[in-house]
What does this fold into?
Amino acid sequence: MIVDSLGITLLLGIFAVLVVLRAPITFCLAISAIITGFYLNVPLEAIVKVMADGVTNFSLLAIPFFIIMGEIMNEGGIAQRLVNLANLLVGRLPGGLALVNVMDSMFFGGISGSAVADVSSLGSIVIPMMKKAGYDEEFSVGLTVCSACQGVIIPPSHNMIIYAFAVGTASQLTGGQLVVVSVGKLFLGGYAPGILMGVAMMIIALIIAIKKKYPKGKGYTLKEGVFIFFDGLLALFTALIVVGGVIIGVFTATEAAAFAVLYAFVVAFFVYREAPLTRFIKILYSSLKTLAIVMSLIAAASAYGYLLSRLRVPMLATQFLLSITDNYYILLFLINVMLLALGCIMDMAPLILICTPILFPVLVLKMGMDPTHFGIMLLLNLCIGLCTPPVGSALYVGSAIGKIPIERASKGCIPFYISMLITLMMVTYIPAITMFLPNLLMPGK
It folds into this structure.
């Protein structure tokens, strides 16, 4: 096999230089692909066609619906109701607001699927509440930022759709049999790891709260409790519609997302009625901006993946990793370390699109790892990057809302980094945590 070292150097080197120069990641991918294509005498029309084909995949149609749904729930008064529901359930414990912070992120993550949306919506409510109650600023912001990352793991999450798309691309690029990962199984596989991460954070928050003597939350009368429960439950049905519909086969992921948008629209504007209907224009505008970023990224990553395949980079990466060790467990550890490092310098969606074609052949096709298990492990690694410096988007938003420097916010995250890493190791080495629900509810799919 002839290895085009210069072509590989161009493709990876130009991308790395542009990343260091802080160019937008879409341009990093597209420019490095186009320049390498010129070197390989690949017509520009072919690269553009690959980019267009990348965004016309039917499975990606679910992404705009998930984005719109998240924006509607973000604007429609859902955040305060989820805070009230979480406060009803755990607020009376020591450090009640800290536990509420984690639990409302678990609820909101299951609706928006976005860590940044979680920090923006819930953080603007909970962080001031925690400060007023006497919690340290670093602790308040750090807990909010880290707990928000559950939104990537607890379904529904558009990042799971991106991973499912990347799996199909990866299996095609390696020239092997087309592998299709079930979105329903990914949704189910994310529940236990996401909840496990939340419970681990709650334990650490409880220990810190007891040590620092943080106050308990307020109690509710029975009448208040019943009202808060059913008021919040109405919002949580959004996630149940998506996940439940896909699991029992009533909807495809795209159909479920479209129906959930309709449900969210009715709940936000005709039941809660906290936002005027004219606000929907802003929601569509904000959704369109997010969608443009995501889809342009997918288009650029498709071209980059095509050049990776043409230069046989996935095959070479497989050979390199297996030359280091053929021990499955050591290999998992090394890949986790690599993904954690990459997550510190790049955002989540591009890493899913770049790393899946490279690592999928190693762990799934060679080592026999279940693609659902691999996907959740990958997402869990990369979600940690959302709250780590220097480019963690959730960390920057939390720092801005809490009005403290990044350094102090990062310091507050340290205890919760530990819980996230423990969760990651458990999910990596105990497949049953991820696979129990998919195997129970969707066997053979």
